[in-house]
Amino acid sequence: MKLGIIGKPQSGKTTVFNAACQMQVAVGDYSQAVHRSIIKVPDKRVIELAELVNPKKLTYAEMEILDAPGFSGKGKEAAGIEISEDLKKMEALMAVIDGFSPDCNPEKDIQDLIDEMIIHDQTVVESNIIKKEKKMKQVGDKTVITEINLLKRCLEQLEGEKPLIEMDLSDDELKLIRGYLFMSLKPMLIVLNIAEDDIPKSDEIYAGLSKFVSDSKRELAVMCGKIEMELVGLEEEELKEFLKDLGITTSAVDIVIQKGYKLLGLMSFLTAGEPEVRAWTIKKGTNAQKAAGVIHSDIERGFIRAEVTSYNDYIEHKTPAALKAAGKQRLEGKEYRVKDGDVILFRFNV
């Protein structure tokens, strides 16, 4: 999973990046620096399976977080903004919103960022419609008509000041425009960065902005980036105590991971053996053959069957022999829809 952080200048973008990634990157220098981190997705199932299997290696699922410049925060007044290719390639966005300044206006800031994405995408759509229509006239290539018509529908949406993610696009249509890396087509996690004194009011603040939440399109989180960043480096038990004292129920890392997974409809299946116990991230609804391809394309290509055990059954029965005796191992075909926590051994031949 790849998550790109955006936000107005001085919204606390890098502070939240530090809190989420457990880092100490300098903040407040207003440079155009790019910060990138790979964080491990905590999963107690990996640890508990490892205690049974005793593998040589444990590997957690990972999330990439990118903190890059690219937004002015001027909303509809923004023009000619340059957004880095790295940021465009992110699967989802994390918009950090100022909720700590005396004169902050979170609703306006959220809308300004959405407007800026709309303006960026409109520029991309307009230029590509012109290019493709010109090519069609010059070389008589009519194969692009479907794409041109789709781009014109996108343009109509953007001219109506609505983001592309609110369009009802089919999988084929999404595939057709995937290469444009439209910003307003990306799901967005809105992180309201509040002051320490407002931590007790987090639930109330969340409720006030909940209208921005939309299934698979937008999620919302409320956190105090400054406090979370100051806790970076503490041991796990000490961190839990501090968070409890502050009235914080979930750490910044866990919030970003949980909300990010929900936003993109992700889950994990596991593989367990003596060489390695590992968690693998896939989309909900992925079939067994496609899940095998996450491990290696050869396994997907030569897929024969999947030996599937639920995580809870594995923990209860502890060994493959006991699982088999209890009838808790199942043989599934390529169309089996993998479930969160499935422990799978893929059989394949290439």
Description:
By secondary structure, this protein is of the alpha/beta class. The protein has three domains: 2-39 and 62-107 and 187-264, P-loop containing nucleotide triphosphate hydrolases (Rossmann fold, 3-Layer(aba) Sandwich), CATH 3.40.50.300; 109-180, Obg-related GTPase Ych/YyaF, coiled-coil domain (DNA polymerase, domain 1), CATH 1.10.150; 285-348, Ubiquitin-like (UB roll). Helix content is 41%, strand content 21%. The protein is built from 14 helices and twelve strands. It has helices at 13-21, 44-53, 85-88, 106-139, 145-159, 171-177, 202-209, 225-230, 236-246, 252-264, 288-295, 297-301, 311-317, 320-325, and strands at 2-7, 35-40, 58-59, 62-67, 92-99, 188-194, 218-223, 266-272, 277-283, 303-310, 330-332, 342-348. A six-stranded mixed β-sheet has the order 2-4-1-5-6-7, with helices on both faces. A three-stranded mixed β-sheet has the order 3-9-8, sandwiched between helices. The chain starts with a strand and ends with a strand. 33% of the residues are buried. The mean pLDDT is 90.
